[in-house]
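Progress note, sequence design subtask.
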């Protein structure tokens, strides 16, 4: 632990993200770590806001144009207040097989050797956020209207979110989100708050 709560929270968020990666085959554990990640990552923004609300408010005026930032913001609120976030769980298996000729039938016969030999299998686990429901969309729409987005821009904004969450897996999206938070922390530390220099 350092004397810097912002750095500590970032490391905590990284910890939960790493555990998501390590528990891909255990969906319930993955969901629990996802919830912890959403809460921890957003708490970094809350911490910065407590220290320098004016600066954070200025950043939010720019971040509102980042669709996935807003998506994670509202997703975290949903997970805290009323909804269990459980992304779709997909399992992909790839088999690498060598044909072995069956002399009695004169036809190729496929076998898998579990512990040795050249035959093998790989299993990949992926998670994808479900398409936003009406409640989630309304939360985002209300935020966009506060910032004077047009109806056409709002439709494009929502379409982009749904396209992104249907095509990119949860872990990759969380990695991108945490990278954005890291960039925000660095910007804050370097330009706006001598009191919050990295330990």
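Output:
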């Amino acid at each position: 632990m350092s004397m810097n709560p912002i750095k500590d929270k970032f490391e905590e968020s990284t910890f939960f993200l790493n555990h998501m990666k390590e528990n891909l085959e255990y969906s319930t554990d993955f969901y629990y770590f996802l919830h912890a990640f959403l809460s921890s990552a957003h708490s970094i923004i809350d911490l910065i806001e407590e220290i320098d609300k004016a600066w954070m408010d200025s950043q939010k005026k720019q971040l509102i144009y980042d669709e996935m930032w807003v998506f994670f913001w509202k997703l975290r609120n949903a997970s805290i207040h009323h909804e269990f976030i459980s992304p779709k769980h997909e399992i992909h298996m790839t088999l690498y097989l060598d044909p072995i000729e069956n002399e009695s039938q004169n036809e190729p016969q496929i076998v898998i050797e579990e512990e040795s030999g050249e035959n093998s299998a790989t299993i990949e686990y992926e998670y994808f956020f479900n398409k936003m429901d009406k409640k989630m969309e309304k939360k985002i729409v209300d935020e966009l209207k506060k910032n004077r987005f047009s109806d056409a821009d709002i439709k494009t904004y929502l379409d982009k979110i749904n396209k992104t969450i249907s095509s990119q897996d949860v872990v990759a999206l969380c990695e991108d989100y945490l990278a954005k938070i890291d960039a925000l922390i660095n910007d804050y530390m370097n330009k706006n708050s001598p009191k919050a220099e990295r330990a």
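Helices lie at 5-22, 27-51, 53-63, 67-81, 134-146, 151-167, 170-191. Work on this subtask will continue into the next period as scheduled.
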